Amino acid sequence: MTQVITSIHDWVLTWHRELGDKSIGFVPTMGALHAGHQSLIDYSRKDNDITVVSLFVNPTQFNDKNDFERYPRNDEKDISLLGQWGVDYIFMPVYHELYPDNYTYKVSESSFSTQMEGASRPGHFDGVLTVVMKLLNIIHPDRSYFGEKDFQQYSLISKMCEAFFMPIEIIMCPTVRDQDGLALSSRNALLTEEERKRAPLFHELLRSSLKAEEIVKKLNESGFRVDYVVDYENRRFGAVYLGNTRLIDNVQR
Ligand code: AMP
After folding, report:
1. Which of 30, 36, 84, 86 is least surrounded, with the fewest CB atoms within 10 Å of its CB?
2. What pLDDT is attached to residue 88?
3. What pTM was computed for the model?
């Protein structure tokens, strides 16, 4: 039976203690679940005795209030899916318990986090790193699972754990895509039918052999508003808007 927990104290003082030395895998999410989330959960279930998934739309990582309000939410459906997917515990904290300091304390990184997503969304990674550190400190997992789709996020979290000597294995899981190549994302639900049909061109161009500037030109011509297409180390990263919806993706080169 899947157990839903909203209170931090209940998890720390009761449920976590009862697990003894069972290994714990943890998958943080913002809900509106899809097969990308499910694959992270499958990896966790393979590696660990117990899998915990958090559902929390973290306000501190949204630099735009409208984006936070528009973000898709469907708790009832998510809880039912997580039950079907064999998750043991669902952690759904409330803001005032997770942020007793009302976000006066934060975790910042001052180098890689200023690029790409960080450059376009000021404060975004402060919010991400802060909430993930809080969640890891509460859940105390052995391993935690993150998607390659958000590679910059994965990399920053992995290095945060090293920097702060947090004894947790951070595991990257491959991007799950629709058949037409579009990376699954909760935000895809916000695309109109017509935008959804155009969306796969983004991934198709990112993985092509064209230069970054040529990709930007082609995307602009096809009705995307390009935020960035950047080659960094052995990857090509991109962020675009289709209408009001922001999509990100990256591919190895
Ligand atoms: P989110 O709910 O969007 O914050 O995502 C929660 C976790 O799922 C993050 O580690 C994401 O990188 C991961 N994730 C989201 N979409 C995908 C996908 N299409 N494939 C693999 N992982 C994903």
Report:
1. 84
2. 98
3. 0.98
